[in-house]
């Protein structure tokens, strides 16, 4: 099979196409013929050595996957060869989704939502589960609450806006000037140009903040939350921020996304109800994985995807 491998850490140029033996599914696993695999910022951080989740190279990147079941390992039930599935298996361990085949745990994938292709399904799992788990599991989002979503046109942000709206929230979104209209098109009730306005001056009485920058940005996000509110951060939060939050009766949740079949099913329901859609900025073939990583670094609207 063709796979994108890297033998050293570095820039996008370290990603090269190679022939590798196709994996065989172990007990409890399925072999997926990959239709598409999504690219996320964490992929670039691992590639560059800034976030050594996979240890030293060589390894194969990729966690987002959508494809068809090619073979079943022993003990797998509820799936059959030919089923269309998607998921974010094994994170943060190696899932090796940048390949034509991937062997993954059967309980970490779900049926691909009806009405979308592998390209758009592969754009969903990691970003969609991050948004879902952040808002619903960690944030306890309820209908009628006011939510502030930072970077609302990014991979996680654009899905978070839609999920929050689908659950009846009032959404305040931050974005750069060229992405404001896109954030509005997702259903955001208010949009803030963060290059021009300070969100602290514009957002008020917020119940839940989804924060993905950390540091001072997380600390300043406390200023817009009301007592009893929740700050959900995708990055580490300082002890100072935690102390300030406690003094203001604000709950701080530091989250890391985890494989979640039930969450995938919920995302699928929203997609089939036409309340959620992944925006794919651009798709690249496996052979152009390096170019895809370089493009992602330009911070496009939505997601970047590889097609097998």
Task: Give the helix/strand layout.
Elements (H helix, E strand, L loop, with lengths): L1 E4 L10 E4 L9 E11 L1 H8 L16 E8 L11 E4 L13 E5 L3 E3 L6 H5 L2 H14 L7 E4 L5 H12 L3 E6 L4 H6 L4 E4 L5 H4 L3 E6 L3 H7 L3 E9 L5 H9 L3 E4 L6 H12 L7 E6 L3 H8 L6 E5 L1
Parallel strand pairs: 8-9, 8-11, 9-10, 11-12, 12-13, 14-15
Antiparallel strand pairs: 1-2, 3-4, 3-6, 3-15, 4-5, 5-7
Describe the structure.
The chain has helices spanning 41-48, 118-122, 125-138, 155-166, 180-185, 199-202, 215-221, 239-247, 261-272, 289-296, and strands spanning 2-5, 16-19, 29-39, 65-72, 84-87, 101-105, 109-111, 146-149, 170-175, 190-193, 206-211, 225-233, 251-254, 280-285, 303-307. It has 308 residues and is an alpha/beta fold. Strands 3, 4, 5, 6, 7, 14 and 15 form a seven-stranded mixed β-sheet that branches. A six-stranded parallel β-sheet has the order 10-9-8-11-12-13, with helices on both faces. Strand 11 (206-211), helix 7 (215-221) and strand 12 form a beta-alpha-beta unit. It starts with a strand and ends with a strand.
Rg, rounded, reads 19 Å
* Distance, first to last CA: 10 Å
Mean pLDDT figure? 97
- What is the percentage of strand-forming residues? 25-35%
Number of helices: 10
Instruction: Please provide the count of β strands.
Output: 15
The coarse overall form would be globular
* Approximate helicity band: 25-40%
Largest sheet: 7 strands, mixed
H/E element order:
EEEHEEEEHHEHEHEHEHEHEHEHE
Poorly predicted ranges (pLDDT <50, ≥5 residues)?
none
What would you call the structural class? alpha/beta
